[in-house]
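To whoever is on call:

I kicked off a structure prediction for a single chain this morning and the downstream step that reads the tokens threw a length-mismatch warning. I double-checked the sequence; it's 361 residues and nothing unusual in it as far as I can see. Pasting both halves so you can look.
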Amino acid sequence: MKSFELYAIAGLMMVLVMMVPTFMKRTIVGIKYHTCLREYKTIIGLKLYHMSAMLLVQIIVSAFFEHPITGIMPIIGIIWSIYFALMYIVYVPSRVKTQQYKKELCGIYYASDEISSNKANLVTNMSNGSTSKKQLSKHLIDYFDENHDDVFEEVFGPKSFLYEKHPSYKRYWKKEFNQMPYDYTAECGLNHISHEFFILFKESKRQSKWLLEILKLFNEDYTRGFSDQKIDNLIRLLSHINEDGKEEELYTSDFLNDLTPYIIDAISQRPREEMIFYREVKECYLLNQLFKFIAYTFKKNNDKSFYDAAITLNNSLYDDKGYVGQCNFEKHESHIRKILMTYQNELTVKFAKEFDKKKFI
């Protein structure tokens, strides 16, 4: 066996040795990196581990046989060792991460003819879709419950792979699930917050954290100038809180104070011309969900600080000209008051009086 060939084999073995401690520490959304890499398929469709194993076998075989073509195998081995160490050990390639994200999230929610029974989805004109039997991975839920926000935008943000429009993404869905991916495109051309995110919300122990994170991603720079899309996002968010909210932090003054600027920002912006027709329904539905949340929290927690935060929000709904939103508030205030009194107690009665005072400004 030639010394050069020995170096090539030694190089590959060194890479394998380096992999062990590095891979044990690294994860992709809670999945061990070495596990993800074993499943990773290269551009030509072969698994990376299989390619490495095949190359190693060829180098070992070439060391024992004299042939012109075998002379270049050690060089290929050294080049591959360096490339593999740099690209798959020192760094985590985006393609590896994306493949793992797809494995975890694709196939949970897909396009279908089934009409949603969720009223918030109907109000916000979400297209039809269905959930499959596939569930969100416990690894992924635990990963975000451990407060990892380093990849949250990459997985659930407005530029996530979940909103991919490329034909190859549809081919992937057809091949893997025999379904078509759900199209999250809103009427304005932006993306709705994904159903996959709200599945995470339902299962997470850190619900308030991720709701505020998703609002930051979708209701700030991304939707600048698209007030109705901001309202759509808030409608669905508040509806999911009212249906699936369980974390105590959701029902605190801190969370309501963080939510208030998003509410005021959304309703105070004028709608685009093509969205005026929908504004009354959407804005009023948002207020209904908001005050339902406030009334439920009054019942759940006899908390003076939350009451003060609710008063601050209520006061923010008005300025010296009256209601800051775009709908005809007087038409809907009696219905909002009924929602407030759904959970009647000392705080709701007191708050309803303040609500009545403010509407006459």
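Update from on-call: the warning came from a stale cache, not from the record. Cleared it. Sanity check on the structure: The chain has two domains: 3-101, 106-358.
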